[in-house]
Amino acid sequence: RRYRNNLAAKRYRQKKIDRIEELEKEVKDVKEERDDLRIRLARQEAEVAALREMMKMMRNGNGSGSDGGSKD
Protein backbone atom coordinates (compact mmCIF):
# COMPACT_ATOMS: atom_id res chain seq x y z
CA ARG A 1 0.00 0.00 0.00
CA ARG A 2 2.78 2.42 0.88
CA TYR A 3 4.55 1.53 -2.37
CA ARG A 4 1.44 2.41 -4.42
CA ASN A 5 1.08 5.65 -2.50
CA ASN A 6 4.70 6.55 -3.27
CA LEU A 7 4.16 5.78 -6.95
CA ALA A 8 1.03 7.92 -7.03
CA ALA A 9 2.87 10.78 -5.31
CA LYS A 10 5.75 10.46 -7.79
CA ARG A 11 3.34 10.52 -10.75
CA TYR A 12 1.58 13.56 -9.29
CA ARG A 13 4.87 15.43 -8.83
CA GLN A 14 5.97 14.58 -12.37
CA LYS A 15 2.62 15.67 -13.79
CA LYS A 16 2.94 18.95 -11.90
CA ILE A 17 6.47 19.50 -13.28
CA ASP A 18 5.28 18.71 -16.81
CA ARG A 19 2.43 21.20 -16.48
CA ILE A 20 4.80 23.91 -15.22
CA GLU A 21 7.13 23.30 -18.17
CA GLU A 22 4.19 23.44 -20.56
CA LEU A 23 3.03 26.75 -19.08
CA GLU A 24 6.55 28.20 -19.19
CA LYS A 25 6.80 27.31 -22.89
CA GLU A 26 3.43 28.91 -23.51
CA VAL A 27 4.57 32.09 -21.73
CA LYS A 28 7.74 32.15 -23.85
CA ASP A 29 5.73 31.73 -27.06
CA VAL A 30 3.27 34.46 -26.09
CA LYS A 31 6.12 36.86 -25.24
CA GLU A 32 7.73 36.19 -28.62
CA GLU A 33 4.42 36.82 -30.36
CA ARG A 34 3.97 40.04 -28.36
CA ASP A 35 7.43 41.25 -29.36
CA ASP A 36 6.75 40.45 -33.02
CA LEU A 37 3.46 42.35 -32.85
CA ARG A 38 5.18 45.36 -31.26
CA ILE A 39 7.69 45.44 -34.10
CA ARG A 40 4.91 45.12 -36.66
CA LEU A 41 2.96 47.92 -34.98
CA ALA A 42 5.98 50.22 -34.96
CA ARG A 43 6.51 49.61 -38.69
CA GLN A 44 2.87 50.28 -39.48
CA GLU A 45 2.86 53.45 -37.37
CA ALA A 46 5.93 54.67 -39.25
CA GLU A 47 4.24 53.87 -42.56
CA VAL A 48 1.10 55.76 -41.53
CA ALA A 49 3.19 58.77 -40.49
CA ALA A 50 5.03 58.72 -43.83
CA LEU A 51 1.79 58.46 -45.80
CA ARG A 52 0.23 61.31 -43.82
CA GLU A 53 3.29 63.43 -44.52
CA MET A 54 3.04 62.62 -48.23
CA MET A 55 -0.64 63.59 -48.25
CA LYS A 56 0.16 66.82 -46.45
CA MET A 57 2.90 67.65 -48.95
CA MET A 58 0.64 66.83 -51.90
CA ARG A 59 -2.17 69.02 -50.56
CA ASN A 60 0.21 71.90 -49.87
CA GLY A 61 2.06 71.41 -53.13
CA ASN A 62 -1.07 71.25 -55.28
CA GLY A 63 -2.80 74.15 -53.55
CA SER A 64 0.27 76.41 -53.46
CA GLY A 65 1.52 75.44 -56.89
CA SER A 66 -1.63 76.37 -58.81
CA ASP A 67 -2.73 79.34 -56.71
CA GLY A 68 0.71 80.65 -55.84
CA GLY A 69 1.99 80.47 -59.40
CA SER A 70 -0.84 82.56 -60.86
CA LYS A 71 -0.67 85.19 -58.12
CA ASP A 72 3.09 85.77 -58.39
Brief rundown of the structure:
The chain is mainly alpha-helical and 72 residues long. The chain has one helix and no strands. It is rod-shaped.
List the helices and strands and how they pair.
Blueprint: H1 2-71
- Total beta strand runs: 0
Low-pLDDT runs: none
DSSP helix fraction: over 70%
Overall domain count: 1
Shape: rod-shaped
Approximately how much beta-strand content do the residues carry? under 5%
Order of helices and strands: H
Number of helices: 1
Largest sheet: none
The SS-based structural class is: mainly alpha
* Overall pLDDT confidence: 90
Please give the alpha-carbon distance between the first and last residues: 104 Å
Calculate Rg over CA atoms. Answer: 31 Å
What does this molecule look like?
The protein is mainly α and 72 residues long. Helices cover 97% and strands 0% of the residues. The protein has one domain (1-65).
Kindly list the characteristics that best describe this protein:
72 residues; 1 helix
